Amino acid sequence: xxxxxxxxxxxxxxxxxxxxxxxxxxxxxxxxxxxxxxxxxxxxxxxxxxxxxxxxxxxxxxxxxxxxxxxxxxxxxxxxxxxxxxxxxxxxxxxxxxxxxxxxxxxxxxxxxxxxxxxxxxxxxxxxxxxxxxxxxxxxxxxxxxxxxxxxxxxxxxxxxxxxxxxxxxxxxxxxxxxxxxxxxxxxxxxxxxxxxxxxxxxxxxxxxxxxxxxxxxxxxxxxxxxxxxxxxxxxxxxxxxxxxxxxxxxxxxxxxxxxxxxxxxxxxxxxxxxxxxxxxxxxxxxxxxxxxxxxxxxxxxxxxxxxxxxxxxxxxxxxxxxxxxxxxxxxxxxxxxxxxxxxxxxxxxxxxxxxxxxxxxxxxxxxxxxxxxxxxxxxxxxxxxxxxxxxxxxxxxxxxxxxxxxxxxxxxxxxxxxxxxxxxxxxxxxxxxxxxxxxxxxxxxxxxxxxxxxxxxxxxxxxxxxxxxxxxxxxxxxxxxxxxxxxxxxxxxxxxxxxxxxxxxxxxxxxxxxxxxxxxxxxxxxxxxxxxxxxxxxxxxxxxxxxxxxxxxxxxxxxxxxxxxxxxxxxxxxxxxxxxxxxxxxxxxxxxxxxxxxxxxxxxxxxxxxxxxxxxxxxxxxxxxxxxxxxxxxxxxxxxxxxxxxxxxxxxxxxxxxxxx
Amino acid sequence: xxxxxxxxxxxxxxxxxxxxxxxxxxxxxxxxxxxxxxxxxxxxxxxxxxxxxxxxxxxxxxxxxxxxxxxxxxxxxxxxxxxxxxxxxxxxxxxxxxxxxxxxxxxxxxxxxxxxxxxxxxxxxxxxxxxxxxxxxxxxxxxxxxxxxxxxxxxxxxxxxxxxxxxxxxxxxxxxxxxxxxxxxxxxxxxxxxxxxxxxxxxxxxxxxxxxxxx
Lengths: 662, 215
Description:
The structure holds two protein chains of two kinds. By secondary structure, chain A is α/β, with parallel strands linked by helices. Chain A has a domain at 2-64. Chain A is built from 22 helices and 19 strands. The longest helix of chain A has 17 residues, at 2-18. Chain A is globular. By secondary structure, chain B is mainly alpha-helical. Helices cover 42% and strands 1% of the residues of chain B. Chain B is built from eleven helices and one strand. In chain B, helix 5 (83-90) crosses helix 6 (101-109). Chain B is extended. The termini of chain B are far apart. At the A-B interface, strand 1 of A face strand 1 of B.
C-alpha cells in the first residue's frame, strides 16, 4: 500500500522535473498520457538526489535521457565484437610468455654503504610535524627505502605508538599523485577581471620548469621588493612548531619589514590557545597526562583519537585501566559529545549533547562544582542551569566524582568548542588543583617556536589580497583554496594577486589557481625540526633523498630570507647550534646533534611548566562570552563539521585531502 | 554377403585400449621427466657479463666463500659482491685484463654490475640462508662443487620435493660448523652418529608443514 504511494509520488516528482504537467486537470486528454482526470495524490514528494529536488538543468537533462550520456551511441573505431576477439587472443597468447623462465639480474652496490646488510632493515628516528605538534617516530628502512612507521618509545608524544595518520604517512611519500615537476603558467601575468571562479578556468596551462628557473624568476623581482621593504609581498604558511621555520620567519620579516604573514590550518588548536590566553593573560599551551588522572571529563573532545596528543592520551588512558593488584581501581571517563567518537565509545558515561550546548553544560558543571565547594570563580550573573536533556543526577554525580578526585582529575574541551569553553575547562582544572608541574594531569607551557594558526591573520591577508595590496603571495604548503573558510572567498582573492607561488605535495586546488607550483619535499625526504606539544625539540631526519626533487618549506623560506639557496640540513644545524648552545659546548655540537638524531629528541629541551596563578577575577571578555552565549535550542538542527581521522591536515596526507569530493 | 568388418577388427578395441595406455604412460612419463626442475633447471648456466671463474678463485686460489658472499650468515640472502670487493684485489692483480674491463668501468663510473641470477626460487617460497648455515648445511650441499665450475651452473633442482627430502631426513647432509664452506667435504664413516649429535645439540626440527616455506 505504502509502497504504491511511494512509486506514485516519485513518478510525480520525476514528471515535475521532466517538465510535464503533473496536475491531473491541466493534462489534456489528447496528449495520451493517461493522466486526464486522475485524482491528485501528492501527499509526499520523494526525491533521489539534491539535484533532483532543486530541479537543476543537469538533473532535468539526466531524467529526460533514456540512457546516460554516451551509453547508447555505437563506438567508432574498434567495435565491441572485435575488441572481445582481441581480448581473447591476448589472454590466450599471454600464457605462452610463461613458457620461458624470466632472466633476473642481481645488481649489487658498487661501493656499499657502511653497515648495510641487504635484507636486514634499519630503523631511524625522525619526527612527523602535524600542526603545532611533532610526533617522534621510528621508521623502518629497507635498503634505503622507508617502509614502515612506528612510534618512538623515547618521545613524549608517541611513547612507542603511532596513529593511523602517522602509519599512513608512508603512503603519502610514495603517492603517485604527488606533484613531480616545478610548474609555471605559460604566459603568466594576472588574469584581469577574473575575480569569479569561472574566470580562472581560462588561465594558461602549466609548463614544466625547473627549480633554477623559479630561483631566477624570484631573483628578477627580489630587488624591487627589497627596495620597497617587501610591500606587496605576503606569505601564507601552515601551522608549525619548527624552530628553524620560526627563525627563518623572523628573519624574512626583518628583511622585508612590510611583508604580510599569515598562518592557517583548517584543523588546529587555535581555540585552545585563545581560551587559555583569555584566562591566563598570555599564550600558553595545555598538555594533558591522562595517565595521571583518575577521573577524565571530555567536553566534546575526541581525546583518544582526534585531539592533538591523542596517541599519548590513549596510552595514558590504557595505563589508568590496568589493574596490577586486587585493590587497584580503574580511572573513569565521562564524555559529553555531539558526535559519536572513539572517546565516547570508550567512556564509562556518555552524554549526547548538541555541540552548541556544551558551553551551557560546562557552566552548569562549574556551578555544580561550586555547590560541592570547588569554586572555579564563576562570576555571579551567569546562569548555571543545565541545558535540556542533561539529567540532574548525571551532573551531580559527575561533580561529586570530580570533587572527590581533586588534583587527580582532568577536564578537556574539544577543538571545535569556542575559546570560552576552553577557558572554563582550564578554570575548573585550576579550581580542582589539576594544573601543576610535570606529572600533574594538566601542565601549561609556553608554546616555543610555534607558528600557531590564526583565522584573524588569514582574514586580514585575504582582505589585503581583495584590495589589491598583495602582488606576490607565497603559499608554503597546504591547500588553502580548498580548506580556507568559504566566507573568506580565498579562491577568488587569489585571482587578484599578480603572482601566487604554491609549494605543495600535489597539484591541488591551490596549485590550480597559482602561477608557480613547486613540488614540496615530504617530511620523510627532507631535513627539518619541530617541537612536540610539551616543547620537546627533535629533528626531522630524512629517510630518502627527495623522490621528485622537491624542496621543503625551510629551503624555500631560506631563499626568501637570505636570497641564497641552502639545503635544509645546513639551515637546521644553524638553528640547532643556537638552540643547544645553552647546554652543549660549541666543540661538542656534532656529537650532541648526532645524539639527537639517534634518540629522536633533544632530552631536556621542554620548557618548565608554568604555574597557574589563582584567578582573582574573570576577565570581562570571558564573562560576557559565557553569559551572552547563544545556546542552540534543544530541538533545533545542528550542523557539525568534523575532520575525518583518516584524512588529516598532515603533510603526510595532504594529497589524500585533495582527492576528497568537494 | 561380405562381412562389413573384417576379422582383424575384432582385436581393434583391445589394440586401441593398449595403445592409449602406452600413450598415456608416455605423456605422464614425459611430463614427469621433462617438466620437472630436475630437467628444466639443473644445468642452467647463463652467460655472465664478466667470465668470472669460481674454479680459479674458489678452487685453485682457495678464496673462502664468505670473502665475497659475506652476508650469508647474517642475512636471508647471500650478497653478490659489490664491485669494490673485486677491486680489492684487481687494483693490483690483472690490472689490464680486457675481461675485467666491465668491472673497472663500473668502479670508475659508479654504475653497478648486472649479474644474471642463477639460483632463482619462486617468490612464494620463503628461504633464509641463516638457519641452514647454523644447522650445518654446507654450501656445496645445495650449490654443488662451485670450486670446480668455470661458469656457475645450477647443480640441484631446488624443487619442492628436493627441499622436503632434506627437511624430512637431514642426517646425510649435516656437517660440523668448521666444514660449512669446505667444498671437498664428503660424509665421513660415522656421519649418522655425527648428525644425530648435531641434531640434539642444535635442537633441529626442520619444518615440513606448508607454512614452513609458504608463509
